[in-house]
Design goal:
The protein has 498 residues and is α/β, with parallel strands linked by helices. Helix content is 46%, strand content 16%. The protein contains 22 helices and 16 strands. Helix 3 packs across helix 4 (68-78), helix 3 crosses helix 11 (232-251) and helix 11 crosses helix 12 (271-282). The longest helix is centred in the middle third of the chain and has 20 residues, at 232-251. Bound molecules: pyridoxal-5'-phosphate. The site of pyridoxal-5'-phosphate has 17 residues, from helix 12. Pyridoxal-5'-phosphate binds next to helix 12.
């Protein structure tokens, strides 16, 4: 299967090129030329396999230039038992007759990004080999908090790669910052940025599309690649867990084969929910895709009105990984809904760049409304939801997941839709223990994050996450900061380019 760019269909590449390059040179995103189909019989078979088996099956539909051995080896390295603290990798928890939580945070950094970023380094090194690449791959990452750590953890000491992460100085939690500053590995670098996530993402995109930088790096034996969800290698592992969730519901007799489910996803860059959309297009029986935002509700408005407008105040919320006003992966959805029309997508993206705004045509608007529902939850609602869910079900969810739960529950009341719904749970509650504790028991809160983790354990009675508590005694290795304009300079310094 070939891939082409959302902004220029004339360039066709195979999946290893798409993964190696990350983004197409003219700024478009790689998408599959056609979407493979999965039958109900195949889904039935998946329910008899473990997570790795399911992943191998779904990946083989998209990575057609990889051999079965290559895919098997990548998957087995990524989802090894010592990496994920749940034998099911992505387990499902039932809250009530219609509400199921899909826990995607059992990997090493306690956020769902691990599901893709434990696999991507293996897909990338295989891709470098397959394409005869001699240069060293430099992974450049802009992060709203969780991607950075998950990418660092995934790429740490992976041969033939280096990784540099930029995070917004005031846009990530203290724990997230510590996770990145203390990262181990000889090939990693981390830098704080004076700005918000969109600044970081735009800065990274500018480096990617700067031909002079490309030439300079090329001369020194480096090539840039991306671990952000603009890379197809990030998206394809995410499609797997929606099939896996359905297969589990089947296996446990919660649904009958062919029964439609809803999928609700707390959304920022539109990567995770886009993976659910691809799963639906492949044949997973899905009724509605429910897109949940925090106060940065640009996507809610877009899904309801067909107008995307980033000219609005930017809010820093207690779900920082969703504090985003430019959702990059929406471009892939638009491409699909515009019938693979690269010209239409280029025009929309031009308009976004020039005016911060675009609107889709009536047909696309109605197709979006048919397949998606949307809603938002501010910090107050988010905290209320954490409290309610804990009181009702003794289930503890993090701030991002709570946005998903809140929006889903409002959707259910508003529409009366009783379809069984899988809600993507995107982080461990301990990763955002301050806000979670504040929601449950504000009177015991302290200024000390680690103390708050302990207190949260006492309140919830759950096990302490060692990956987070260990941070307390880890040495800080990276404390540098820079302005957006200096990002290329920081990169050169890391690569020891004069
Ligand atoms: C990244 C992230 C999100 C948003 O996912 P997108 O794919 O960017 O929409 C939600 N929750 C958490 C915890 C995250 O780390």
């Amino acid at each position: 299967m070939n891939y082409f760019s959302t902004r220029d269909k004339s360039k066709r590449v195979n999946s290893s090129y798409a993964i190696k390059e990350g983004i197409s040179p003219e700024g478009g995103l790689y998408v599959p030329e056609s979407i493979p189909e999965i039958t109900m019989q195949e889904i039935e078979k998946l329910s008899g396999l473990n997570y790795n088996g399911r992943a191998k099956y779904i990946l083989s539909k998209f990575l057609t230039d990889f051999t079965a051995d290559e895919i098997n080896s990548c998957v087995d390295k990524a989802y090894a038992n010592d990496k994920f603290d749940s034998p099911e990798t992505a387990p499902i928890k039932k809250l009530n007759d219609s509400e199921y939580i899909l826990e995607l945070w059992h990997g090493p950094t306690c956020a769902f990004k691990d599901m893709a970023l434990q696999l991507l380094p293996h897909l990338l090194t295989a891709s470098l080999k397959k394409t005869g690449e001699k240069r060293e791959a430099v992974i450049l990452v802009a992060t709203s908090g969780d991607t950075g750590k998950a990418a660092l953890e995934g790429f740490s000491d992976v041969q033939g790669t280096k990784i540099m992460v930029f995070y917004p100085e005031d846009g990530v939690s203290h724990i997230q910052k510590l996770q990145m500053m203390t990262q181990k590995g000889g090939n990693v670098n981390v830098c704080g940025l004076y700005g918000n996530f969109d600044d970081a993402q735009n800065g990274v995109k500018a480096i990617f599309t700067d031909l002079n930088i490309k030439k300079e790096l090329d001369g020194k034996g480096f090539m840039l690649s991306s671990a952000n969800s603009i890379n197809w290698g990030r998206l394809v592992p995410q499609i797997v867990y929606y099939f896996s969730a359905y297969a589990d519901l089947l296996k446990y007799g919660e649904i009958i084969n062919g029964e439609k489910i809803n999928i609700a996803v707390p959304t920022g860059n539109f990567g995770n929910i886009l993976a659910a959309y691809y799963a639906k297009r492949m044949g997973l029986p899905v009724n509605k895709l429910i897109c949940a935002s925090n106060s940065n509700d640009v996507l809610t408005e877009f899904i309801e009105t067909g107008v995307y407008d980033r000219n609005r105040p930017f809010f820093t919320t207690i779900s920082p990984s969703m504090d985003i006003l430019i959702s990059s992966n929406l471009e892939r959805l638009l491409f699909n809904l515009y019938g693979n029309n690269d010209k239409a997508v280029s025009d929309l993206m031009d308009s976004l760049k020039k005016t911060g705004k675009y609107s889709v045509d009536a047909a696309v608007k109605s197709s979006i409304k048919e397949q998606f529902a949307a809603g938002s939850a501010d910090d107050g609602k988010t905290m209320q939801t954490i409290r309610d869910i804990f009181e009702k079900y003794k289930y503890l969810c993090d701030t991002h997941t709570a946005v998903g739960v809140s929006v889903y529950e409002e959707y259910k009341i508003k529409t009366g839709d009783n379809t069984k719904t899988v809600i993507a749970s995107t982080a461990s509650p301990y990763k955002f223990s301050d806000a979670v504790l504040k929601s449950l028991k504000p009177e015991v809160m302290t200024e000390d994050d680690f103390k708050n983790i302990d207190l949260l354990c006492e309140v919830s009675g759950l096990k302490k996450p060692s990956a987070l508590t260990e941070l307390k005694n880890s040495a800080k290795r990276f404390e540098g900061r820079c302005n957006k304009a200096d990002m290329p300079k920081e990169l050169y310094r890391f690569l020891k380019i004069e």
